[in-house]
Amino acid sequence: MNRLSWFNTVSLTLGFAFLYIPMVILIIYSFNESKLVTVWAGFSTKWYGELAQNEAFLNAAWVTIRVAVFSSTLATILGTAAAYVLVRGGRFFGRTLFSGMIYAPLVMPEVITGLSLLLLFIGIGLDRGILTIVLAHTTFSMCFVSVVVSSRLVTFDKSLEEAALDLGCSPAQAFRLVTLPIIAPAVISGWLLAFTLSLDDLVIASFTSGPSATTLPIKIFSAVRLGVSPEINALSTIMIAVVTVGVIAASLVTKRAMVRQKQDELAAARTE
Amino acid sequence: MGRPGLAVMDGHGCGFAGELMRRALLIAIPYVWLLALFLVPFFIVLKISLSDVELAIPPYTPTLDLSQGWAGITDFFSQLDFENFVWLTEDDLYWKAYLSSVKIALISTVLTLLVGYPIAYGMARAPTEWRPTLMMLVILPFWTSFLIRVYAWMGILSNEGYLNQILLWLGIISTPLTILNTNTAVYIGIVYTYLPFMILPIYSSLERMDESLIEAAEDLGCSRLKAFWLVTIPLSRPGIIAGCFLVMIPVIGEFVIPSLLGGSGTLMIGKVLWEEFFSNRDWPVASAVAVVLLLILVIPIVLFQRNQQKQTEAGQ
């Protein structure tokens, strides 16, 4: 019975309308001629032009991108190691504490994480700037990476690793040649997740940044507090477009990788 | 890392000790990172919540002076007290903010469940070839900036906003409704931004469900509604629980939504903490607020972790 009932059709339509209409309105009104955001006065791209002139926004965007690249790369390395340890590491001292520290940041209110990290940085006398934001973002996004990667690790066949070990690979080689290629799609989506989490974050960045480093969300937040503005609409539209293209491209790539992997596994099974 | 065969290590010249070292290092690096940047900061918050506010840098006292040896340490501990926590109970603002955060979180979790369940259910019933696309449509907003999604509602809900324009044009209302800067706007904002967190876990538990169970229930004389209530809902319970926790826990400490969509009447503890820290510069009270918030959240966080662990073990 794979036909949708009217109830399911209605709930899906209304649900997706609810999710998408606000963003569609935002995008449409970013092309509005008028300074008044709620009154339509004809098509124009002038707000995009003004955005390109806005030095402060451009600087903030550059800071944000650098922070996101560094923190998501670090978080991917640490998070993948943490996932590997949790799934394959066996028993070790303090394992419960370790898994607790992986899961807790996922639901921790950002104000607490931000405040506690700030007090740590001040306590050890670290000047607030790009470095402190990178450290903060790495800490919470490595937990997300680790959850994504460990969900892939639990589902794949452990005997593949064991076969590599039996055939004379060192554990490091087995990881590099067998495990890593198999979990690669999860590692990539973990990196993407960490990257967008870092791009997005307002609260933790506000606590851990100094006057020398303002990120884009901090800039947007202080502008938005004064009300709706067409320039912010234009900026939002660009960000939505970048994310949409990125997510769709990434999903196509991982889908293709997974299909290829399946074919390889089938081929391997046939030659056995 | 699981089982180092002896032959392997002879062949590569790295001994058992080297292997152990590598394993220890692999565990130690993420472990130490989390200890230093996640656990230790909490103890610092705890310590500062027991300190007094001071016009200095750092703006609290006492500070630990290790150069004086043991005397410095005892001196430090003797100056800590629970003054800030007493202050939290004396001023109405704080406990009202805690209560209202919990209330807003509970109501909005129920609302998100009511909105999210039918969507997840519809997705799980959709033809198999649609599902990846539908899934993508739910995930996409989740990747889009949180701040932007909240901001989008400011233009819709304001007095001159699109919603009021449409309602006035349709003749449903004659004067604009005040929605922005009220609790209603906060609820709308929370449901909107947290909806994917509710939909995804429910969808994944519904998708795994065997449809023949429903057919069996119907064959045995259940009405469709009764079959839904007796079979579908209980089977999707793990998803419902995970979704509710994923919405409720972060909402209790939410800051962005109440500060952009809420008004002066919207009391939420995340906003209070923020203002205590950034506007009043009272670090000890801000830390005390954080400690109490954490105590409130410990129970749901532990329950959430248990639920997740059970799920992963069931998956294995």
Give an overview of the whole structure:
The complex is a heterodimer of chains A (272) and B (316). The mean pLDDT of chain A is 88. Chain A has a domain at 53-227: Orthogonal Bundle (MetI-like fold). Helix content of chain A is 79%, strand content 0%. Chain A is an all-alpha fold and 272 residues long. Chain A has helices at 6-29, 46-53, 55-88, 95-107, 110-123, 130-155, 158-166, 171-200, 203-208, 216-224, 230-271. In chain A, α3 packs parallel to α6, α6 (130-155) packs across α8 (171-200) and α8 (171-200) packs antiparallel against α11. Chain A contains 11 helices and no strands. With 316 residues, chain B is mostly helical. Chain B has 3 domains: 1-49, no CATH class; 54-81, no CATH class; 83-315, MetI-like fold (Orthogonal Bundle), CATH 1.10.3720. Helix content of chain B is 74%, strand content 1%. Chain B contains 15 helices and 2 strands. In chain B, α2 (16-49) packs antiparallel against α15. Chain B is globular, with a radius of gyration of 26 Å. The chains are: A mainly alpha (272), B mainly alpha (316).
List the helices and strands and how they pair.
The complex is a heterodimer of chains A (272) and B (316).
Chain A: H1 6-29, H2 46-53, H3 55-88, H4 95-107, H5 110-123, H6 130-155, H7 158-166, H8 171-200, H9 203-208, H10 216-224, H11 230-271
Chain B: H1 6-12, H2 16-49, E1 52-53, E2 60-61, H3 70-78, H4 83-90, H5 92-125, H6 131-143, H7 146-157, H8 162-170, H9 183-207, H10 212-219, H11 224-235, H12 237-252, H13 256-260, H14 269-278, H15 283-315
Antiparallel strand pairs in B: 1-2
Q: What is the CATH C-level name of the largest domain in chain B? A: Mainly Alpha
| CATH architecture title of the domain at 53-227 in chain A | Orthogonal Bundle
So what's the oligomer here? heterodimer
The named CATH superfamily of the domain at 53-227 in chain A = MetI-like
User: Cα distance, first to last residue of chain A?
Assistant: 39 Å
Largest interface: A-B, 100 and 103 residues
**Series of H and E elements of chain A:** HHHHHHHHHHH
Mean pLDDT of chain A: 88
